[in-house]
Every structure is written in C-alpha cells, then in structure tokens.
Predict the 3D structure of the following.
Amino acid sequence: MREYFIKPKIKSGEDSLDCLKTLKYSSYLIVTDKAMVDLKIVDKILEKLPKDSKVKIFKDVTPNPTVEIVERGLKEIVYFSPQCVIGLGGGSPIDACKGILYFNLKIEDELKIKREKPYFIAIPTTSGTGSEVTSYSVITKGDKKIALANEEMLPDLAILNPEFMKTLPSKIIADTGMDVLTHALEAYVSTIATPFTDSSAKEAIKIIKENLVNHFNNPQLLLPRENVQYASCMAGIAFNNSSLGINHSVAHSIGAKFHISHGRANAIIMPYIIEVNTKAWKKYSELAKLLDFNPTDDENGKNLFNGFVKKLKENLGIEKSLKDLGINFEEFKIKIPEILEDIKGDICTEYNPNRLTDEDYIKLLLKIYFGE
Ligand SMILES: NC(=O)c1ccc[n+]([C@@H]2O[C@H](COP(=O)([O-])OP(=O)(O)OC[C@H]3O[C@@H](n4cnc5c(N)ncnc54)[C@H](O)[C@@H]3O)[C@@H](O)[C@H]2O)c1
Ligand SMILES: [Fe+2]
C-alpha cells in the first residue's frame, strides 16, 4: 500500500510573514543560526510576533547540525517550555529544530508528562532541503550523518518568503539548488513513486532548468528567486512521500567524512548515480523529453538528461569529481569500507531503483573520486 500525505499549511509570497501576526501563543522558541541574527532576519520575525509574548532565541546551530547541538537546544526547550517553536534558516537550523522537538516529545512520553505539543513553524532561508515540508531531519554524529524520519517532525506551518534569499552567496545558491534537483530526481525514479509525487517532482525539475542559473547569476531578481523557492518546496513534498535514493546515501557519508556541503556533495555525485541506476534510464529519458530534448531511445534519453545535469553543474561552477574538489586519494581510499557501511545503513538506500553489490559501490566510489 502506498501513501500520499500532505501537510503542512504553506504560506508563500513577499507578504507571507504577515501570517505570524495572527498567532495567539504566549511563548516562542526560535531555533536558528548566527547568520540569521547578523543578517537581521531574526528581527523580521520578532517584528511580527505578538508584542506581549515571551521569546527565546537559540542561535547556536551550525551547518550539518550535530547531536551535541540538538542536546543543547533540548535543554532550552525543556526549561522554556514554549507554546510555539520556529525553525528559521537553511536546512541545518530547521533540521536541528526538528531533532529538538522530537527528542523533547520522547522525553515527555517517557516521563508521562501531558503537555500539548508546541506548534511548529518552519521558515526556510535557503531554497534547497525542502525540510519545511518533510518529516526528515539529518543530524551528524561523529563522522556520520544520520537521516531520521518521523511524522512528529513535520511542521504545522511553512512560510516561504522569497525576501530572505536575497542575501544568499552564489555558492550556496548553487549547492542548495542542486539539492533541489537531487530531491526531485530521486523522488521521480524512486521505486515507490506515484503520479502524485511525479507531478511535483517533474514541475520542480522544469523550474530548476528554467530558473536556477538565472537565480545564481542574479540573486536580486524576484522571479527566478521565487520560482526556485517553489521548486525546493515541491521537491520536498515529492520526496517526503516517495523517499530519496543512493545519491543522498552516498552524499550523506562523503559529506560528513570530508566536510562537503550537502548540496555540493549531491551535485558532484549525480551524473555517476544516473549511469549506475540502469533500471531508471527510461524515467531519465522521460525527463529528457519533458525538458524538450528529443531522445531517440531510453539510453539516448538518459544521456541527454545527464548532459543537462553536467552542463548545469558547469554553469554553477561545481566540480566534476572529489579529486577536483581537492580530496586526498589515500584518505578517501582508507574510508571506503566505512562509506560502504554508511550507504547500506542509510534510510535513503531502500527505494533506489537499482540494488548495488559491494563491488558495484566500490566501482561507483572510484568513479566519483576520479571523474570520467
Ligand atoms: N530534512 C531534510 O529533508 C533534508 C534534506 C536535504 C538535506 N538536509 C540537511 O540540511 C542541511 C543543509 O541545509 P542547507 O543546504 O539549507 O544549508 P545550511 O542550513 O547548512 O546553510 C548553509 C549556510 O548558508 C547560510 N545561510 C542560510 N540562509 C542564508 C541567507 N538567506 N543568506 C545568507 N546566508 C544564509 C547559513 O548561515 C550557513 O552558513 C544538511 O545538514 C543536510 O544534510 C535535510
Ligand atoms: Fe538533500
């Protein structure tokens, strides 16, 4: 049996923050990072919250949030006991916020504390993870990234305000935009994809083709900025219902071990995953058709689609391989057995179109390292 589940309510547009004015809660915990405070994005939220409410700001989240950061945030939520929690920032603060909420609920359950679950609002400031509409949270433990999935972590409200993306450095636009493409692509070729998930995945892929490079070159232009934000959210809705694939499993492991941003890791890996997912070549070919290439057969369609991905990466200044990124081969080689274990234990691996053997994975990892 398959399931399609839609939540949260989504407010979008330049005036979307105004919905905060209607909230009636008396206490708010904002989980964010230092950049959001420095860029005064936090101030924009504070301006809209009810004047007489109590607000606490936890701004210690760092990129690729760790278990230790979640534990620190947990202390804040336990002591403050807010009625509403706001995750503000890129995927890192929103995921950390989800982790904090989830472990807080677990503690309350274990101790049989009967308290209403705080209302959870997610406000993304990158167009990438789609975390504002997913029940996933990715937390780093040592040199491993652990993807958690639980409906309790799904926000109640997502606010998409394109104004916040104006300050994004172009490198982050490139990385997070490629994360969007990876989500949509993996959702589309997933073994549990449905027409529901296909529709938002396909639309997100089209939007990325038509807008990402323009947004990267002109972050001040509203239309491409807003479109990429919609694509990010739609790709999130798609993969929340059809799961991801080994592009993400490999990126989680390599990203954590070599400190590569999530979107860049996904982008470097993508062309090699497309080649190895032979069972999805027909679907890549369908996407080539969607993007107005004219495939002659499935293999040609897969090649055309992969050509589009490679060109997009080039336009965004993304490396072709881990070697190009400057990673030392000896350090990479020594970690291969651990990477293999990580991939096989990652929840994203289950619904990938092809099942790979250890030997297949090793060959794939070597290609990702050296490039073609
Ligand atoms: N929950 C999910 O479903 C899901 C899916 C994919 C990835 N992830 C996880 O999300 C994390 C990555 O999130 P991300 O790619 O959004 O990046 P991020 O949240 O780590 O942010 C990257 C950098 O951009 C800065 N930044 C964010 N918004 C900005 C803005 N508007 N202006 C200027 N600077 C800004 C941040 O301060 C940070 O330094 C990873 O941990 C990844 O594993 C989660
Ligand atoms: Fe991702």
